[in-house]
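Predict the 3D structure for this chain.
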Amino acid sequence: MKKAIVTMAVGEAYVQAFETHARPNWVRYADRHGYDLFVLTEPIDTRSQRSIHWQKLLVGMLPEIKAYDVVVWLDADVIINARTAPCVVSQVTGERIAVADPPEQVSAAETVSERFLAFAIKFNTEIEGGVAAPLHVRKPRAELSYRPPGDLRAIERSINTGLIVFRPALHNEFLAKCYAKGHPDAPDGSFEQTPISYELQAADMAEYIDGRFNATWAEYAAVHYPFLYDYAFINANQDLARKCVNVFYHSNYFCHFAGAGRHSITKTMLELVDQDAPHVMAALAPDFWVRRGEVYADLEE
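Done. Predicted structure below.
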């Protein structure tokens, strides 16, 4: 089976960020599991007025990619835990387009989306000096706004399209039709995600795989480390923030640092991840990790 991983990084800043933070472990992962890696640095549709995020729907049409049996699209702000992540294609069982199963509930009274939105508003207001700035945050169940009147098809999830696993021979036509519908960028700032999330569910084209293949740091932090959404706290406790984001990285496979560049939860903490650490303890307590043989010497095998 011919497998490819594809992403797009257009512009010097995006290329540099990908080369610095993502490429080394992407290459390790691709070599380990037998993928070819493509990093596109130019738009496919140069006439489009929409955000470049939409062009992930067109990559399977490129001659150099069309011949692959399976294509894994990853956003360029995903970093891969190459040490632990299994082959994502091996997780796909059907003939639908595979996406990561998004986490839904924090508790019986609150969804992940609701928690994330609440903390994002708080955080954004603080960093803007008390003024609530426009948010690049997808609102809970925003997909329902795309459903025509009388359409009762199940739209139950908010899919993050930072990961899409598809077969060009089977899915290029569907993806191209989604692109050709001309949905504008979503008004809530989620660009292509909400419209594509709707289209995948409305056509019953989504297969859901392990959520660790597209774990979004901002949502994970809102659920597990909400104190990081306190701007003063995060500035005063950088070492704790570093430990939190390393637990996130070592607990997941594909770690997605989605969000606006000025948002220190979503982007800045990517730089704190120790991608070379062989174990979460090596990242959190390196002195202990070095001494582990001595510490464990008296334990039974």
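The two ends are 41 Å apart (CA to CA).
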